[in-house]
Design brief:
About 30% of the residues lie in helices and about 30% in strands. α3 packs across α9. The longest helix has 18 residues. The protein is α+β, with helices and mostly antiparallel strands. The protein has ten helices and 23 strands. Strands 1, 2, 3, 7, 8, 9, 10, 11, 19, 22 and 23 form an eleven-stranded mixed sheet that branches. Strands 4-6-5-20-21-12-13-18-15 form a nine-stranded antiparallel sheet, covered by helices on one side. The structure holds the ligand C=C(O[C@@H]1C=C(C(=O)O)C=C[C@H]1O)C(=O)O. The site of the ligand C=C(O[C@@H]1C=C(C(=O)O)C=C[C@H]1O)C(=O)O has 18 residues, from β9, β14 and β23.
């Protein structure tokens, strides 16, 4: 029988969860709570995400465990199926912050080798081709990503990276999801795809980005520039419209602010819209809603099918669980699903980092390349590497 415990809201309780995390587990720290799922009472994989959500609801209804956790890939047609686990043991505690600030950072040994995929110049070329394709094929937006393969002669610890990510990102959805073969998807995303609690649903779509700067004057200027950038508002509007359209049939009431707000992570400025709604049918679970929303134009594009084709055509790697979603759902159907960005797939002695950005007809290839470099910084920082390290590759 699966075991579940609420371990209180004390700092010690949440820190114990982080300290007990191992790379096979599921971990999620948000502003409000910390969750650790370990062991496998049941595992479900399915390339059809709606069917997966139904199978998970059935398993939860059977009482196998009180909660299911896991990850959906960017595109299950690539051969990476959605993967959900009903953990043998689920532990919950209060938020990690600010208590985690007092813990020392963990050291990650420096990499022995690193290789951008594709070469940076080729990513800029792909963006230019994407801009032309938007026009020729009638797309409003496509999201193009690049990857960075990093090797560590002496091994790399997902636990240490997660620890530093939690410390660095108090407002983030900081996650780790165990993958087959002892690998783990580890990251800290600013973006909530969907949360459901009772009738209330919330989505926090993000699109439109500029890097933060260590210089306070440049930093403030970047924030202001983003808030008044026509190109970024277009990029954002395409996303917010798509999320609203998908949620509308499920909701009796939707609250959508007219304008996005400016938000920040330690490495990026973003435009974000907070969409809240009231569900018509309580039987529609958080995972079912996440499956309906995914892939949003935050990580794919509009129209979805054409954008997905363009991504396959222009990116020389498979995204796997990057640009998918990670989260949990319980027997009541409540849950929380974050967009799996600002993350890396971590193995024993190597990891692959990912970063992407939305392309619209007004996009500039070199600015888009810069944006992906800035987005890598979330993980680089957790690995103890300065942003300049990337420029040397
Ligand atoms: C695709 C990523 O980020 C997404 C793309 C954004 C953009 O294009 O402005 C902003 C936030 C995210 O929705 C990523 O970080 O890899």
């Amino acid at each position: 029988m699966a075991d579940s415990s609420a371990e209180g809201t004390t700092a010690e309780a949440s820190i114990r969860l982080l300290e007990d995390y191992t790379a096979r587990d599921f971990f999620l720290a948000t502003e409000n709570a910390t969750l650790l799922g370990s062991g496998v009472a049941a595992a479900l994989t399915d390339p059809d995400e709606i069917r997966l959500s139904q199978r998970v609801a059935t398993a939860l209804g059977d009482g196998i465990a009180p909660i299911a956790v896991g990850a959906l890939p960017f595109d299950s047609a690539e051969g990476t199926p959605g993967r959900m686990v009903l953990p043998r043991r689920t532990r919950r505690a209060g938020p990690m912050h600010p208590a985690v600030d007092a813990l020392p950072r963990r050291r990650v040994a420096p990499p022995t080798n690193a290789r951008p995929v594709p070469e940076p110049r080729r990513h800029a070329d792909a963006v230019a081709r994407a801009v032309a394709a938007l026009r020729d094929r009638g797309l409003r937006k496509v999201v193009l990503a690049r990857a960075l393969d990093v090797e560590f002669g002496g091994g790399v610890s997902a636990e240490a990276i997660l620890h530093n990510l939690v410390k660095d990102n108090p407002g983030g959805y900081t996650f780790a999801a165990g993958l087959p073969g002892g690998r783990a998807l580890v990251g800290s995303s600013p973006e909530l795809l969907l949360s459901r609690r009772g009738h209330r649903v919330v989505s926090l779509p993000h699109a439109g980005s500029l890097p933060r700067s260590a210089d306070p004057v440049t930093d403030t200027e970047n924030g202001k520039a983003l808030l008044s950038s026509r190109k970024d508002h277009i990029e954002h509007a395409v996303l917010a419209e798509a999320v609203v359209e998908t949620l509308r049939p499920f909701c009796r009431k939707l609250d959508v602010p007219e304008m996005p707000e400016l938000v920040s992570t330690p490495t990026m400025w973003h435009l974000r819209t907070k969409i809240t709604g009231e569900l018509v049918d309580r039987d529609v679970t958080a995972l079912r809603l996440a499956a309906a929303l995914h892939p949003t134009p935050a990580i794919c594009g509009t129209p979805t099918g054409l954008a997905r084709e363009l991504v396959t055509e222009l990116e020389p790697f498979e995204r796997g669980y990057y640009a998918g979603t990670v989260g949990w759902v319980n027997a009541e159907g409540d849950g929380e699903w974050a967009v799996s960005i600002r993350c890396a797939e971590v193995g024993n002695s190597a990891l692959r980092l990912y970063a992407g950005g939305g392309i619209v007809p007004e996009s500039d290839p070199w600015a888009e390349l810069e944006e992906t470099s800035a987005k890598f910084a979330t993980l680089l920082r957790a690995m103890g590497l300065p942003r300049e390290w990337l420029a040397e590759l």
